[in-house]
Amino acid sequence: MRRERTLLVVLLLILLHHISATKDHQEHRCPPSSCGNIPNITYPFRLQGDPENCGDERYELGCENNVTVLYLYSAKYHVQAINYDNYTVRVVDPALQHHNCSSLPIRSLSRSNFSDTYTDSADLYQASLYLYLNWESLNFEHIVFLNCNHSVRENEKYVESGECVKWDSKGYAYAVGGDLKAEDLEVGCDVKLVAPTSFKTFNKHSYAAIHRALAYGFEIFWVNLACQNHCPNKEFCDFDSSSQKLLCYPLYEESLLQWLKILAGLPLEWLAELTRLQWSPALPGQSHGPLQDASLDADPVQALEPELAPLRCSSRIGKPPERYICSMIETLSSILIPSSYKQALQNECWKKAIESELLALEENQTWDIVPCPPYVKPLGSKFVFSIKLHSDGSINRYKA
Predict the structure, then answer these.
(1) Which of 2, 69, 144, 363 has the largest CB neighbor count within 10 A?
(2) Do 209 and 202 meet the contact criterion of CB atoms below 8 Å apart?
(3) Rg (CA), the chain
(4) What keywords are annotated for this sequence in UniProt (predicted)?
């Protein structure tokens, strides 16, 4: 009886696997759909009314009055183009009209609306193609509309909208092409609207050109989904813009590359010391094991004899404070130096380092940490991650 039950369970598992594989295969093999000027709608997208096994239901598009519609943050946008090579879809606010300079987007939308601005994105769409948190990889820029209680003539970034835009028939209406930094916000001016555009070569001193750029629309990405499908084993995923392909790297290879970059910037005596500790012939009582953190030994003064480290100025190795809990025994190739805040959040040691740094900033009253307004671009501040080493090359602590 037990044998029959086991056989039944095995058959059910095989059947479920077959059904799942068939579904995945059919999602990618459905004939393309079309609506208006978008003729080739395929996976991951699908149109309302397509067979249930076609596309991903989370990426369902509408077709209204022969216009393809994408739903983003509870709002509708008209689809202008889909590029399956670089995982982009270009959309435009439906209220914008090419030949009507008075037409404006219905609602504000900026980089800060997308969760990949701050952390590993779980959203369907991302603002950046590359899986790093930086503004340089953003594929659109902002156009900021302002209303001022006085005429602004000394700031050339402020472009007067003339008769095209009037905010409640009061004050002076301006548009700024590109990101508005804090120092560019004039006294007596209020931000009324922020909108994105991916048309980056427009004349930022002409309101007509600014409006045409808005009507072109902006690009967003579904690269996270593509990476999940292409690198299913939680490998490091990167987009190669030259070959237009996604590449998968084992995490240990990325870690090794990060360490090579660090070692390339160390003084020669550090490299010599690290090389000697790792590759020199074993001395009596010494093994070829990985680099060890002597700060974890019961007696750090006796853990390393003076003759074993001739480049060291002192035989004393102080123990790190208790909050640096991540001094550990690891090989260089096993340690990943994050290149972004998102990567750092994936490791408990780096998260502790970030918390320690923020705590120190708060205790020292170095900064006042406040929310960033959606229309203001941060002034390039970011975390830099490193590992502090002892003079013998062993790990001292993780530093953010």
Answers:
(1) 144
(2) yes
(3) 28
(4) Signal
Residue with token string 């790990």? 395
Distances (CA, A) of 111 to 30, 256, 373: 34, 32, 11
Distance CA 192, CA 153 (A): 19
In this structure, are residues 150 and 125 in contact, taking their beta carbons and an 8 Å threshold?
no
Q: Provide, for the chain, the percentages of residues in helix, strand and coil under a 3-state DSSP scheme, each rounded to the nearest 5.
A: 30, 20, 50
Name the β-bridge partners of 398. 387
Burial of 380 (0-12, 13-18, 19+ CB in 10 A): exposed
Whole-model pTM? 0.57
Residue 362's alpha-carbon distances to 275, 335, 353, 379, in angstroms, are 39, 28, 14, 20
pLDDT tens digits for range 104-142: 999 999 887 876 655 555 678 887 765 444 445 567 889
DSSP letters of 320-350?
A: PPTT-TT-----GGG----SSHHHHTTSHHH
Q: What is the DSSP string of 82-138?
A: EETTTTEEEEE-TT--TT-TT---SS---GGGSGGGTSS--SSSBSBSSSS--STTB
Give the amino acid at 221. Answer: F
